[in-house]
């Protein structure tokens, strides 16, 4: 069974930084695409950033220039460096791998 476990969430001040990490374990060959999604209370889950096995990245317009996604294929981990945080970044952040694998989420709260 494949498991994705997020870590690094917490409380930050506006303008501050947090680094999220996701560790994958279990039986699998490799993931084609990994990424981060987030869901704020009362809103739909949205894509934040994705990275392919070869290193190609995509970002939501709302986080471009502030967030950086990275991946270590050998360690089966994916990270999200979040800088210049804004209160609107407050949400539960989920790690995703390909189509059907999700972590349980980690809460990020940004105060103004």
Distance between the termini: 40 Å
Proportion in β-strands: over 45%
> Mean pLDDT, rounded to whole units?
94
Label the structural class: mainly beta
DSSP strand count: 11
Q: Could you spell the SSE succession in H and E letters?
A: EEEEEEEEEEE
Largest sheet: 7 strands, mixed
Which term fits the overall shape?
Answer: globular
Uncertain ranges: none
Q: How many H/I helices?
A: 0
Measured on Cα atoms, how large is the radius of gyration?
13 Å
Helix content: under 10%
Could you characterize the architecture of this molecule?
- The chain is mainly β and 112 residues long.
- Helices cover 0% and strands 54% of the residues.
- Strands 2, 4, 5, 6, 9, 10 and 11 form a seven-stranded mixed sheet that branches. It has a four-stranded antiparallel sheet with strand order 1-3-8-7, with no helix packed on it.
- A hairpin with a 6-residue loop joins strand 4 and strand 5.
- It is globular, with a radius of gyration of 13 Å.
- The model has no long low-confidence stretch (mean pLDDT 94).
